[in-house]
Amino acid sequence: MLVSRTLAEVAAIIRPGITTLYLDKIAETFIRDNGAVPAFKGYGGFPNTLCTSVNDEVVHGIPSDYILKEGDILSVDCGVILNGWYGDSAYTFPVGVISDEKRRLLEYTRASLEEGVKAAIAGNRIGDISNAVQTMAESGGYSVVRELVGHGLGRKLHEQPEVANWGKKGTGPKMEKGLVVCIEPMINAGRKETIQMRDGWTIKTADGAASAHFEYAVAIDRGRADVLTTFEFIEEVLNKM
Ligand code: MG
Ligand code: MG
Fold first, then answer.
1. Which pTM does this prediction carry?
2. Which ligand lies nearest the alpha carbon of 148?
3. How far apart are the CA of 58 and the centre of ligand 1, in A?
4. Superfamily of domain 2-240
5. Which of 16, 46, 87, 104 could form an S-S bond across to 3 if both were Cys, CB 3.0 to 4.6 Å?
6. Does the pLDDT of residue 141 top 90, yes or no?
7. CA dist 87 to 123, 153, 164, 212, Å?
8. Tens of pLDDT along 79-106?
């Protein structure tokens, strides 16, 4: 999917000293050069192509002249529209060398996403995904953001069903083959509570602790779900750095 390639383009230039607005420009140009349209720009009035959320920002950060510094973690969320279909994916990047605490948070958030994917099987219920994500995140001592959730994806950016990152097994809508959902754990190093900034978009942790966010769009199947937004391209780039 084009979102995966776009996040890899961004991955290649993330380093201390550059601004989140610069990343946004690179992403927008890449998306348009590939015949697609940024999905977030103008969505509910959001001003940019990417959501860039640093450290204690959970999601929906607005790209700005903030200069990335060594030790930051940066969640980059990207949506595109290609031939009328939406793509949506997010990855949290280390900026230079990060602390062991932050690295562990990224590992657990990523692992909670993978556990969610394992539970995303036709015949299972959405709550099975929610519970798998929550169980993995909390096993690391982390907390799960309650106010924001994953979602169905298709001809619109946000479709039914909602995919919470917390909940009980065996609850919620049953998944059928062919359903596409975004699974997107937002995991806090500290407490689960969040606050919204006055810009009307940026969500931060209430206690100021770090937060991470990874998102896949997956197509439900009878066996393992098909991940439509692979991180392969991103990790190829990161492994070369
Ligand atoms: Mg997203
Ligand atoms: Mg999403």
1. 0.97
2. 2
3. 12
4. Creatinase/methionine aminopeptidase superfamily (3.90.230.10)
5. 87
6. yes
7. 24, 8, 19, 20
8. 999 999 999 999 999 999 999 999 999 9
